[in-house]
Amino acid sequence: MAAFEEFGVLPEIAKAVEEMEWMLPTDVQSEAIPLILGGGDVLMAAETGSGKTGAFCLPILQIVWETIKDLEQAKGEKGGTAPTKTSATWELSTSDRTPALAVSADGLVCQAREFKEWHGCRATKGVFNSGKYYYEAKITDEGLCRVGWSTIQASLDLGTDKFGFGFGGTGKKSNNKQFDNYGESFGKNDVIGCKLDLDSGKISFSKNGVDLGLAFTISQQVQRSPLFPSVCLKNAEITFNFGTKPFKYKPDGFKALTEADKSCIKNNDPVKAPLKKLNNAPQALVIEPSRELAEQTLQQIKKFQKYLEKPAVKELLIIGGVNVKEQMATIESGVDIIVGTPGRLEDLIGGGYISLAQCRFFVLDEADGLLKQGYKNFINNIHAQIPKFTPDGKRMQMIVCSATLHDFEVKNMAERLMHFPTWVDLKGEDAVPETVHHVVVKVDPQLDTSWHSMKQHIQTDGVHRQDNIGPGKKSAEALSEAVKVLKAEYALKAIKKHNIDRAIIFCRTKLDCDNLERYFKIIGRGAGRDNPFTCVCLHGDRKPAERKSNYDAFKQGQVRFLICTDVAARGIDIGSLPFVMNLTLPDEKSNYVHRIGRVGRADRMGLAISFVSTVPEKVWFHGEWCASRGRNCYNTELTDRGGCCVWYNEPRYLADIEDHLNITIEQVSPDLEIPKNEFDGKVTYGARRVAKGSDYKDHVSQMAPAVSELSKLESKAQLTYLKRHFLKSAA
Ligand SMILES: Nc1ncnc2c1ncn2[C@@H]1O[C@H](COP(=O)(O)OP(=O)(O)OP(=O)(O)O)[C@@H](O)[C@H]1O
User: Fold this and answer.
1) Hey, CA dihedral for 415, 419, 425, 430, is it positive or negative?
2) What pLDDT sits at residue 69?
3) d(CA 257, CA 266)
4) Mutate which of 42, 53, 56 to test ligand 1's pocket (most atoms within 8 Å of Cβ)?
5) At which positions is motif Q motif (predicted)?
């Protein structure tokens, strides 16, 4: 049996996974896959590159496929209706309830342990037409509760619309949000009798056998619909008796619900309408912060389903820059899993082209990134539109991946939107994967004066265009300009020295990316046929089609360098990428881990080099106050004076990162000689790391003696049991 099958993955999917050379699930996969397959909400964080995408794509694909298969079978057997499960007995419905309300196995006890919200439930059967019916509800634990009757249209928060009639522990009756004094308060151990007289259209209650008088007269409109026993609770527990046991206080003239005539009973069927697959209603919606990440996730889903035969799972990428009419046509022709970015998704969902009515999985990948990009309201809106139960009674599952779960925004969102999520936090605080060797090279324009006499250099961002910065000048502005020039030279030097033929290079701004790309092209042209500096750019100002072709060109090895900003490169996964360079450190410390995590993925070794200025650099910072957001803006005043520049303090950012990671990052001299250490000489960057004692493969052989000992013990225990058992029977 393939390793993935042991985690409940279908053999067909496990086979595809094995072909991708995934022999064992990663830690986050071993934890998250069974949880998702088991129906839970999962909030996961693990080191960058540790296989989070597979951890959610695998189980989602499996469940979506199984659901489509069930539907197709049901179609064949029953002419289009999904199997309906109806209950033979009077009990609380496990389908017609809010998510946090637990119902006991016999369906007679319900409990909600949430303090903040009401959770409710209806019974599996209701009554209509005529007759006088009675049931009892005993309060078995302190807390707030309301019991009574409601029609199927009523909210499960009993008494908050015209279809629900409740009596609450505080001594109030409620219908249509009107809470009026009624009877008296009740609490633990009290038995509330709920009486429904369909002949005269009246509802009344009793407490411990004492009648509390008429509570409601039911309108004719409501009387036409069956009424079901209903309850809602806030951190409380109630036990019901619909008539299977003798009542404690049975009133005269009323029947137990269990004695209702068949002709007056209506089943509370969770599948109210035949489940028909709507073409434009996906079962899973995966939201990614960037188009590249969305494409990557979609590709994984495609690979996983290689051996899944009929029915086919239809997945679709919804990103901007792609012909929207084509996307709409594909949606109309049927879609099961949508992977997309917020902008285009918002248009298509808002315009009614995508229906969320049958969505069963709501996934936020890189949720911290999505929230930082300002998509909180978008996420809330989508969540509000997805029904919390699908038409076939399955609970909506929400899965959130984040670089860290220790982020206030992420925690807050999880608390608001997720349903008792299981935290798979394999990371705790940010940490650098063991497979990443990362070093810092200080760029000091006072020590390295090569910029005084350069014939050719990078065109910088132009911040110092108006400043007096010629060679030999020692002003802060001159040194700042010098650093910008030197950093590009250091990057070239690193490439030559370490024969770097494949790397992602991070720049701080889109303009910095453009300038570096242009410089590499100029230098490369002079370098002849085997241009060692071929490169492309990936950032938000490039048109989507160009971004795609640039990304593909780099992925396929047609160019050596991908020059990009943080946002564009978040989460991108390029197999066996050996090198990353940071031309400038990010000011957001967690982005450092993200950036360097582009190497060292899937157990391959990688080297990340960061060039860190020893002096402050004056750089562009165009905020909301900048009308053009940087385009043709030359306001070099500092931001605190209404301008668009700041002094970037890299030594401080380096200290922040070190502090955050609780490490000192190894420093390398400007000659870029990487010192001998545990990485050097033993690894080839981009190749699989050499297995050490703690690695998976050796792990098996290390565990072997203990496992064999355990198996011997087990067989001994079983033999002892059998001997005793048979000896006893023989005696
Ligand atoms: N079980 C596995 N065995 C071998 N390789 C794997 C396994 N799971 C994932 N991978 C590979 O590891 C790489 C990283 O996976 P993935 O992109 O899912 O990581 P991630 O945790 O989402 O990273 P990030 O936080 O950077 O987005 C991919 O190339 C993927 O194909």
Assistant:
1) negative
2) 86
3) 12
4) 53
5) 2-30
**Among the listed residues 449, 461, 446, 538, the one whose alpha carbon sits nearest the alpha carbon of residue 489:** 449
Name the closest-CA residue to atom 16, ligand 1: 51
Asked if residues 527 and 456 have their Cβ atoms less than 8 Å apart, the reply is no
What's the rounded Cα separation, in Å, for the pair 153 and 29?
41
Low-confidence ranges of the chain (pLDDT < 50): 79-86, 271-274, 692-697
What pLDDT, on a 0 to 100 scale, did the predictor assign at position 276? 67
CA of 98 to the centre of ligand 1 (A): 36
Reported as half-sphere exposure (CB side, CA atoms, 13 A), residue 647 has a value of 12
Q: CA nearest 592: which of 608, 576, 616?
A: 608
Report how far ligand 1's centroid is from the alpha carbon of 48 (Å): 8
* pLDDT at res. 83: 42
Q: How far is the CA of 54 from the centre of ligand 1 (A)?
A: 7
Residues 27-72 have pLDDT tens digits of: 899 889 988 988 889 999 887 788 999 999 999 999 999 988 887 7
Give the number of the atom of ligand 1 that is nearest the alpha carbon of residue 293: 27
pLDDT at 680: 55
CB contact set of 427 (below 8 Å; sequence gap of 6+): 45, 46, 47, 404, 405
Q: Based on C-alpha coordinates, what's the Rg of the chain?
A: 33
Identify the residue whose C-alpha is closest to ligand 1 atom 8. 51
pLDDT at 695: 43
Tokens 């209806």 identify what position?
A: 122
pTM over cut 0.90:
no
The pLDDT score that the predictor gives to residue 681 is 53
- Name the H helices within 527-646: 544-555, 566-569, 589-596
Query: What pLDDT sits at residue 605?
Result: 85
| Residue whose CA lies nearest to ligand 1 atom number 4 | 22
Ligand 1 near 48 CB (within 6 A): yes
Angle at 594 (CA atoms; ends 305, 369), nearest 5 degrees: 75
Check pocket membership of 289 for ligand 1, CB cut-off 6 A: no
> Is the CB–ligand 1 distance for residue 600 below 6 Å?
no
Cα separation, 110 vs 95, whole angstroms: 13
CA torsion angle 345 347 348 349 (round to 10): 80
2-33 per-position pLDDT tens digit:
678 887 889 999 999 999 989 889 989 988 99
Q: Measured between alpha carbons, how far is 704 from 179 in angstroms, rounded to an integer?
A: 67
Residue 327 Cβ inside 6 Å of ligand 1? The answer reads no
Q: Mutate which of 4, 22, 425 to test ligand 1's pocket (most atoms within 8 Å of Cβ)?
A: 22
The pLDDT score that the predictor gives to residue 274 is: 46
**717 CA distance to ligand 1 middle (Å):** 42
* Sign for the pseudo-dihedral over CA of 214, 220, 222, 225: positive
Question: Of 516, 510, 604, which is closest to residue 561 (Cα–Cα)?
Answer: 516
